[in-house]
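Crash report, auto-generated. Payload:
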Amino acid sequence: GAVVSQHPSRVICKSGTSVKIECRSLDFQATTMFWYRQFPKQSLMLMATSNEGSKATYEQGVEKDKFLINHASLTLSTLTVTSAHPEDSSFYICSAGGTSDYNEQFFGPGTRLTVL
Amino acid sequence: GQNIDQPTEMTATEGAIVQINCTYQTSGFNGLFWYQQHAGEAPTFLSYNVLDGLEEKGRFSSFLSRSKGYSYLLLKELQMKDSASYLCAVLDSNYQLIWGAGTKLIIKP
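Recovered output after restart:
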């Protein structure tokens, strides 16, 4: 099956610093990648949809200047959390559009961000 | 608005059968997914239904009734490793996934 990797799996940073998270589709080309955030005991919340070669589409309430998304190639999308604060601490998950007929999304393993 | 409802938590016994229900109200419908998520991990795909009826895949089955806006995930011969959250998600008319809050399933010996 399709494999999506994420790096790093876990990151701890100081308040005010920026953190970059990479999402890669390893064995297929993903025109579209999705970035989600999940707070403890809550459902996944879509942050933005990333399309290769174009600007990301952000969900309402998500600050595009704070969460910078770059989808430079068909196998790589990056999410940069700029000037991170403790309230940004969360589980960030990326997914890539499926290659099957039914739009299945393949999820990366997630990145646990802790901002001190 | 768009809404997906599923129970917050369920408990079942090892070896038994459990049914997790999901009801939805969305703008359009292009399919319903069930995902399994273990604590601290990303979701993994379990099933996809777009037509009414039952889809069976090993110990897991998923049912859909579009007219009722209803689906269920049926887990048979429960194993301890099945303890996880089960997420129901609907693909709306814009092909955007709308997520339920998930059902935490606790399996007891």
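Post-recovery validation: Chain B is about 0% helix and 55% strand.
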